[in-house]
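Sample intake — Transmembrane channel-like protein
Collected from: Balaenoptera musculus
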Amino acid sequence: MSESSASALPPGRPGRQAFIHQESLSLDSSCFSSPPVNFLQELPSYRSIARKRTTILSRDKQSGTLLKPTDSYSSQLEGEITENLDSQSIRKYALNISEKRRLRDIQETQMKYLSEWDQWKRYSSKSWERFIEKAREMTTHLELWREDIRSIEGKFGTGIQSYFSFLRFLVLLNLVIFLIIFMLVLLPVLLTRYKITNSSFVLIPSKGADIQCTVYPISSSGLIYFYSYIIDLLSGTGFLEDTCLFYGHYTMDGVKFQNFIYDLPLAYVLSTVAYLALSLLWIVKRSVEGFKSNLIRSEEHFQSYCNKIFAGWDFCITNRGMADLRHSSLRYELRADLEEERIRQKIAERTSEETIRIYSLRLFLNCIVLAVLAACFYAIYRATIFSQEHMKKEIDKMVFGENLLILYLPSIVITLANFITPIIFAKIIHYEDYSPGFEIRLTILRCVFMRLATICVLVFTLGSEITSCDNYSCELCGYNQKLYPCWETQVGQEMYKLMIFDLIIILAVTLFVDFPRKFLVTYCSSWKLFRCWGQQEFAIPDNVLGIVYGQTICWIGAFFSPLLPAVATLKFIIIFYVKEISLLYTCRPSPRQFRASNSNFFFLLVLLIGLCLAIIPLTISMTRIPSSKACGPFTNFNTTWEVVPKMVSTFPSSLQSLVHGITSEAFAVPFFMIICLVMFYFIALAGAHQRVVVQLREQLSLESRDKRYLIQKLTEAQRDMRNRLD
């Protein structure tokens, strides 16, 4: 055992480790001079240490850095603690009460010989630490839905609790995004519009834009029919189109205050960059914590069996039904592990003909999956084109149902695709002959790609329709001004409709499917059909994919509809209470449960994928598609991103040179190389930490072998003693 691994042992067992340390350090003087072998030198751990010690001795003799036998573990630990008494609290050390009291006496003795300034600093640091601890305890009581989530954790375990914690995280994230957009974009406009401050709007006439490009006929909001307000509320048209909810409302170039001019176009771009960067950093920060837990939990198959049997129980469970469910979940996990082991053995025993057959079958089934995805994407494409071509009809030419069907046709097709494709994927995966764990991961991956790609298909279809220039008006303005006079607002309306329709579907499924299903299964259990149907399962992956789908819509639509994060916040709050009621009264947990650490990392990984997919259409729309000349704060710019070079041009010449240098290839190449070196360093550091984990596991294994060896020797000694007495 190496010196680093020996120092990494837990400090709570000084006697055991001091013995090993002293024995290992005495090997240089006694072990290799063939002394009489005693009983303890026959231990498996001692022999393993001796083998490793030979290499350490040869290396240390060359460098001249041999340790002295008098360096005991207890003296090293005491010296380390006494040196760090100023910076760390005694409670952080894994020692018994008597040792902590002795160290506290040492600390109080040292305090007497310090100056008044040092004593004041130490007392103030302790007081500050106590204040921070009390503040953290107080903030825990201010957490949103703290009691509800703890109740769910107590009744249903940590797996389902992690879903509701993830939902709370999305509520807070959207609330912060809304505050960023409100402070940078909406607040200056409201202060000026309602004459709260002495300010005015700055309107610069468009230069070089044709008069046809500046025409923006906003649809009338008159109440011709009683359902007009309902249609406008569900689709974002009519009286909602010219409100602060959508992009077209902010048709101004700035806000003039007494001492400065507030650049609204620049603030609009910065708010978008800020909420995307904040979302990325927040998700990565939370993902790293889950990744650390998963890295530590990486284990061999034998250790996996032992952990499930001896440490797999969730002690947060207090409900009898959930306890039975946890028992069945552990049985399922053990069966799944045994099934994976059987499949590994089956793979190892496969012949070349069987391997070719199974890979050919998988290739064919993956072609079917791609065909299903392509069919769904083409259906969304055709539905979007049909909806965009017919949505310009007058309301009085269509009845209420036809109008809503035309407006929500893309959303309906996307919802049907998200409902049908998981069923098809679940049927296909059974014929691909994968392990149970890989089946779940691959099915979830396909569903994630399907749900998130449908949004991108919708956005890119709208983009192709906006930029399709087949007449003079398109060539003049750079986009299809006849159908899309303010295309940003119309894209925002599509995102708004997706958000509202997703909420309607969740409420409808809960009210008209889950509750009647619960009623029929409970009170009509004598019917065999209802018994086979059973209660609705609370499937954690499906519910997570649903809210990640809604969050991706929010990220894409927040640029085109600045108040969409507020709508998303209200939506997720409603979903929290709806899902809580559904869980408590209509659903049963899925037998395939998730651990909290694995669940959190999986949720955030899917959310990170959704963020990356949301950035792609936003980047293209801001840098490639010409901005509308009839609405919005970018009427005097060819594209949205042109406001950034314009801002840089106002900098001093030295600062401009610095910015151009940072964005040039001469800076990018060395920066990329440095990033690669840093990445390689952290990869090597992770490998070193992994080796330390392996050494610690080897030590645990050696301890178990020592115990078996000592029990065997003790049994033999008792048997010899009985034989002598007889």
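Post-analysis note: Residues 1-37, 59-77 have pLDDT under 50 and may be disordered.
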